[in-house]
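Duplicate of #3305? Posting structure anyway:
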């Protein structure tokens, strides 16, 4: 073949190739810049490969969390449901371009499914939330990829309900790469920890829970000796607003306990106090049945307010038992035994000296009415005997000429029977007065014991209430 033939062919084909190239460039120039840039970036892009030119270089993912709302706190199942705004960015070395070549475009939105995305997950996930799907990400011209999306997060949390309704919960959200080690994917914080902690700009602050802050902590952990993973923890600290529970749970219980204390001012010898105490106890039982659904229930422990309700119920039962005892002591009976000497010395002298000194002096005095009755009885019996003896003497003595005739025998028998009837009436009245005096003694004993037990009961209620108020105040303002 002649040597000049290739040169001739090249001379013939060169104008055609140049014309085709100019036509293609003109066609590309006529296309929109966004399309040209998208085709330029994704033409040979492999989303299954981590986007670094040197495999030894780790991909650093910066993340940020802003709490939007606390949707639900399930104490029974130990689950927290929150709604957050999640932001993350990383550098993709394969998504870089010169803005001057593409009409000065510095930022482009492309589908998330078309590029590599880090596998950042939350370790505490227990359920898939109803989060909207955001199909696009922003890419900067220097390769920075920004991924913003809202998330409804359903996570496990160790909820401590002992301080309910003044409890503060601390739940963690741990973001980590599920597969890549720290040599491949590293995690850092987007903003400063102080700004993350105090950011309540978008939080819906009208619900039951109040956001106290969001604390951050970075740490490395390893499952095996050779693999080390990076994780970023966000501690969401929330506090319950107790006003609703204080009004609906604490105030009714306090009112019932106050009415129980006021019930001690009813007379101990009346049966109305027992009926009043039983009515209070039944009312408190109905109240506990109503509020049982409001209290959080867990298998781990019982909140302190539940213990408070149980103790209040026990105090009402003790108050009813004390009332029954006092009513039994002061109850009047026909064959009631006198107050024992040891009980009289203990209650009417020593205890009364501490509680009511005015009654202690009167309790030492013997009943004047009984002594007067006995004295009158003895004198009447003496006069009666003298009278009978005198009538017999009159019968034995001889009548003088001027003495009146003796009364007939039937009249003396009638007078004697009348005197026996009067004596029996006197004995009956004396026994009734003695029983009344015994009843008065038991009433004094019951009154002193009632005052003593009331003061002990009042001290117990006050000490218990002050302890609970102090604990709840410390938890509320800690």
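Output from current build:
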């Amino acid at each position: 073949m002649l040597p000049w033939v290739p040169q001739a062919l090249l001379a013939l084909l060169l104008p055609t190739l140049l014309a085709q190239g100019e036509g293609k460039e003109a066609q590309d120039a006529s296309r929109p810049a966004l399309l040209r840039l998208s085709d330029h970036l994704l033409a040979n892009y492999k989303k299954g490969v981590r986007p670094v030119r040197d495999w030894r270089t780790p991909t650093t993912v910066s993340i940020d969390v802003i709490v939007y709302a606390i949707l639900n706190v399930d104490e029974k199942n130990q689950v927290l449901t929150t709604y957050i705004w999640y932001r993350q960015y990383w550098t993709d070395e394969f998504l870089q371009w010169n803005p001057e070549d593409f009409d000065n475009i510095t930022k482009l939105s492309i589908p998330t499914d078309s590029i590599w995305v880090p596998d950042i997950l939350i370790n505490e996930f227990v359920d898939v939330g109803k989060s909207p799907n955001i199909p696009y990400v922003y890419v900067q011209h220097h390769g920075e990829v920004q991924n913003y999306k809202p998330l409804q997060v359903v996570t496990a949390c160790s909820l401590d309900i002992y301080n309910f309704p003044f409890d503060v919960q601390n739940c963690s959200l741990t973001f980590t790469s599920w597969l890549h080690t720290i040599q491949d994917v590293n995690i850092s914080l987007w903003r400063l920890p102080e700004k993350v902690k105090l950011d309540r700009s978008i939080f819906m602050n009208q619900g039951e829970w109040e956001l106290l802050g969001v604390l951050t902590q970075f740490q490395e952990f390893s499952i095996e000796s050779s693999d080390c993973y990076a994780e970023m923890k966000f501690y969401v600290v929330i506090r319950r607003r107790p006003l609703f529970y204080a009004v609906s749970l604490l105030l009714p219980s306090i009112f019932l306990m106050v009415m129980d204390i006021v019930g001690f001012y009813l007379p101990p010898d009346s049966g109305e106090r027992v009926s009043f105490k039983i009515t209070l106890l039944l009312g408190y039982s109905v109240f506990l049945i109503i509020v049982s659904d409001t209290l959080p229930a867990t298998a781990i422990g019982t909140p302190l307010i539940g213990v408070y309700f149980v103790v209040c119920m026990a105090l009402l039962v003790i108050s009813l038992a004390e009332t029954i005892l006092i009513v039994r002591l002061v109850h009047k009976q026909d064959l009631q035994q006198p107050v024992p000497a040891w009980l009289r010395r203990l209650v009417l002298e020593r205890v009364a000296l501490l509680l009511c000194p005015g009654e202690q002096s009167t309790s030492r005095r013997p009943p004047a009415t009984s002594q007067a009755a006995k004295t009158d009885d003895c004198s009447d019996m003496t006069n009666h005997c003298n009278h009978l003896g005198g009538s017999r003497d009159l019968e034995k003595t001889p009548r003088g000429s001027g003495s009146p005739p003796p009364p007939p025998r039937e009249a003396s028998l009638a007078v004697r029977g009348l005197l026996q009837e009067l004596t029996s009436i006197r004995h009956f009245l004396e026994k009734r007065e003695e029983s009344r005096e015994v009843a008065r003694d038991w009433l004094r004993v019951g009154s002193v014991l009632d005052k003593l037990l009331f003061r002990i009961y009042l001290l117990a209620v006050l000490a218990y209430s002050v302890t609970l108020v102090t604990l709840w105040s410390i938890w509320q303002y800690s």
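Confirmed duplicate; merging threads. The chain is about 50% helix and 20% strand. The first strand starts at residue 59 and ends at 74.
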